[in-house]
Amino acid sequence: MAERITIIGFGEAGRHIGRGLAAEAKARVRAYDIRQDAEMSEAARAAGVTFEAALAPALADARIVFSLVTASSAVDAARAAAKHLKAAQVYLDLNSVSPMTKKAVAAAVAAAGAEFVEAAIMAPVPGPNHRVPVLLSGPKAAALASRLNALGMRTETVGERIGDASLNKMLRSIFIKGFEALLLEGLVAAHRVGLEGRILDSVQQTIPGIDWRAVATYYLERTAKHGARRAAEMHESAATVAELGLDPILTSAIARRIEWAHEQLKDVRWPAGGPRSYEEVLAAIEAKYFAGSGKREAAE
């Protein structure tokens, strides 16, 4: 019998994982998203996923429920799902949130009597799709890992405590989004005086073996398209660091810089659906943040 999976939250990660599970693993995949429009419905159709207009029918016959919403919506999504979950179902939270938030999600799911496993996605989803590396933790994690890996997923159990998987993700994100914030701040400042190319060339000489222009394009493109989500994840990382007893000075700053960039870029309509280079992102920030502010003159 084909595995029956429902995905709550049909954004980028949900679409790619859903497509892989439907096409390669031949799972029966349904999806629900609070955004209900023709674009979302067409994306589901293209992925081979049944898109539901309401949460209850989406969950009705699912054996495994994937939560792939925004960080700020993880607990609310679990509470909404709990009204319809049954004891035989497994609720898998794959959201990039702190261990504390995962425990709040677990509490919401427990009220319905369903099983709960927490997960952390450890690499970009586009490309590997459902085969992206995923860490699992919780008392039922090992059993679920066996089922998911049989579908071609790449899951690894890292502990029986709720929070073990997300702790790995939150601390890793400090490094990954930290690069992003450094590139943002350094290149925006360099762009003010036309030095961004020279700076990247200098970094290339100091740290060879990496195409720094390609890296800049990759990270600034992610900021442009997913800045709000990435900033929210970093606020969760900051909460994690604080919970571990350390003042999250840099982690909070990373969140704020990505949040700032998102505010400058959120209304940009990219001709190609997204920026094609870091130069496009820098130009868009220049036009939004600095134009008419007098700050250009101050920099010159």
What does this protein look like?
- Strands 3-2-1-4-5-6-7-8 form an eight-stranded mixed sheet, with helices on both faces.
- The chain folds into two domains: 159 residues, Rossmann fold, CATH 3.40.50; 130 residues, N-(1-d-carboxylethyl)-l-norvaline Dehydrogenase, domain 2, CATH 1.10.1040.10.
- The C terminus is likely disordered.
- By secondary structure, it is an alpha/beta fold.
Features:
13% strand; 8-stranded mixed beta sheet; alpha/beta; 8 strands; Rossmann fold; disordered C terminus; globular; 300 residues; 55% helix; 12 helices; single chain; N-(1-d-carboxylethyl)-l-norvaline Dehydrogenase, domain 2
Could you state the CATH homologous superfamily of the largest domain?
NAD(P)-binding Rossmann-like Domain
What is the helix tally?
12
- What is the correct CATH architecture of the largest domain? 3-Layer(aba) Sandwich
Lateral strand order in the biggest sheet? 3-2-1-4-5-6-7-8
Please compute the radius of gyration using only Cα atoms.
Answer: 21 Å
Strand content: 5-15%
Structural class: alpha/beta
Count up the domains.
2
The name CATH uses for the topology of the largest domain is: Rossmann fold
Largest sheet: 8 strands, mixed
Shape: globular
